[in-house]
């Protein structure tokens, strides 16, 4: 698992003369690359905040697991967070090595500068990061992109752990962009995190681990680059409004118009004489609700035992009061618990278990059953090899069969209990890819988990169960 550097929980960031960023939930890990984009000024407010110009109006920020309230640029730099922009400080009268060590805080304490040692250190840094500059090279002919790279190395010499790149992509035209990608990948190998705040859609391959899209002054969607590059390009080229039409249109499995995705999902309980929301989420979002094992079991029991605990769902403005799980399924709210195999029938094949919700209807077609099954599993959006499906072990991989089932029938809301914490690293990566496919079609996924570490790379947002 990646080491967590910064965690933001329900943070509001204000900047004079601009709207606030609202309800920002974000985890920044070591050696991670993240893109931040949006058609409003939210990304600029975030960049200002990292430069020490914004104000923490609400919420909590944790640095290395400890509460942290930065109050200026110095606090961010002490924490190893540096912002690099196209206007990065660079002096033409100094050579490359001298610019590498420019503005170091201890430089003013030195009465005499050892020029030879400076060039030796500069040469070592340039070789380490494969930058094609000579240590004693004069600076006047360097392009703006070259100066930005040198500025990034300078920040590293000052202890940078997170580099925030503020709209610098335009300084790297054509083949120059490859140099930037290679440099950033080298930084990630050293555990340095890179956050690019930019709207350039042609800079997504394969730079980002994830892209965060802002809309209406809050996080609209968090996209995993490796699976959804097409989505990033389309949205950034056409604007965030394209997200409402592009995603369901491209991800539609059956080719038929789908029901409108849930705009807002709320689980409420009746307490103290009124209905009180406990968990709320947006369409196309993966939310991890974290708590102790007892708290997670309590939420799960409240959902399952509606009559006893008086709980209900609000789905896209529609109140759903239910008496059993079957009624929830009619509204396309699906639940799955790791290790619970009650929905896997031993007398059916893996393919038949995936198709279980429609199995009786398909079987009624008699001789057409095999043809229908082949069409759904192979010619539909799953794109699976039937041999791989049959190799799944129902005893240890029943959860995969369940995920394939819900990937095929795409519920409006999918609730998973204790899933991530019981999987290994490879299985978590597999599940993340599948969940991204599910939420890409407008479904919402709720993860009930005990540990925050396992949710960092999967969930868009984390909440603590009250």
From TrEMBL:
Keyword set, alphabetical order = ATP-binding, Nucleotide-binding
Q: What range(s) does the ABC transporter domain occupy?
A: 6-241
GO MF entries? ATP binding; ATP hydrolysis activity
Residue stretches spanning the membrane: none
Entries under InterPro entries matching the protein: ABC_carbohydrate_import_ATPase, ABC_transporter-like_ATP-bd, P-loop_NTPase
- What is the protein's given name? ABC transporter domain-containing protein
The protein's organism comes out as Wujia chipingensis
Q: What is the lineage of its organism?
A: Bacteria, Bacillati, Bacillota, Clostridia, Lachnospirales
């Amino acid at each position: 698992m990646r080491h967590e550097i910064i965690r933001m929980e329900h943070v509001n960031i204000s900047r004079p003369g601009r709207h606030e960023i609202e309800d920002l939930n974000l985890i920044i890990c070591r050696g991670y690359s993240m893109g931040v984009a949006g058609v409003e000024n939210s990304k600029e407010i975030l960049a200002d905040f990292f430069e020490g110009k914004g104000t923490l109006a609400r919420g909590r920020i944790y640095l290395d697991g400890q509460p942290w309230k930065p109050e200026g640029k110095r606090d961010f730099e002490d924490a190893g967070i540096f912002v690099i922009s196209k206007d990065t400080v660079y002096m033409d009268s100094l050579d490359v090595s001298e610019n590498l060590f420019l503005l170091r805080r201890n430089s003013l304490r030195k009465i005499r500068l050892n020029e030879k040692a400076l060039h030796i250190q500069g040469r070592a840094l340039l070789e380490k990061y494969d930058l094609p500059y000579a240590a004693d090279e004069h600076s006047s002919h360097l392009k703006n992109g070259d100066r930005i790279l040198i500025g990034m190395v300078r920040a590293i010499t000052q202890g940078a752990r997170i580099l925030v790149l503020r709209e610098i992509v335009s300084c790297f035209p054509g083949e120059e962009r490859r140099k930037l990608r290679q440099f950033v990948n080298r930084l990630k190998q050293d555990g340095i995190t890179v956050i690019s705040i930019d709207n350039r859609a042609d800079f997504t391959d394969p730079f980002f681990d994830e892209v965060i899209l802002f809309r209406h002054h809050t996080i609209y969607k968090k996209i995993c680059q490796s699976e959804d590059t097409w989505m990033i390009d389309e949205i950034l080229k056409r604007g965030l409004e394209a997200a409402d039409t592009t995603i369901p249109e491209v991800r539609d499995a059956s080719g038929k118009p789908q029901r409108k995705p849930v705009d807002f999902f709320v689980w409420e309980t009746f307490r103290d004489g009124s209905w009180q929301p406990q968990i709320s989420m947006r369409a196309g979002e993966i939310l991890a609700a974290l708590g102790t094992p007892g708290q997670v079991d309590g939420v799960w029991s409240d959902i399952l035992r509606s009559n006893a605990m008086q709980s209900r769902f609000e789905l896209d403005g529609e109140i759903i009061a239910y008496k059993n799980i079957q009624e929830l399924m009619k509204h396309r709210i699906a639940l799955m618990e790791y290790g619970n195999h009650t929905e896997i029938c031993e007398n059916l094949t893996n393919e038949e278990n995936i198709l279980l919700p429609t199995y009786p209807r398909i079987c009624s077609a008699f001789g057409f059953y095999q043809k229908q099954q082949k069409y759904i599993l192979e010619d539909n959006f799953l794109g699976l090899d039937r041999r791989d499906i049959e190799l799944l072990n129902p005893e240890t991989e029943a959860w995969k069969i369940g995920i394939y089932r819900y990937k095929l029938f795409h519920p409006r809301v999918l609730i998973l209990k204790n899933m991530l914490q019981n999987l290994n690293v490879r299985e978590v990566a597999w599940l993340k890819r599948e969940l991204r496919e599910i939420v890409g079609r407008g479904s919402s996924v709720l993860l009930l988990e005990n540990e925050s570490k396992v949710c960092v790379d999967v969930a868009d947002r984390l909440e603590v169960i009250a």
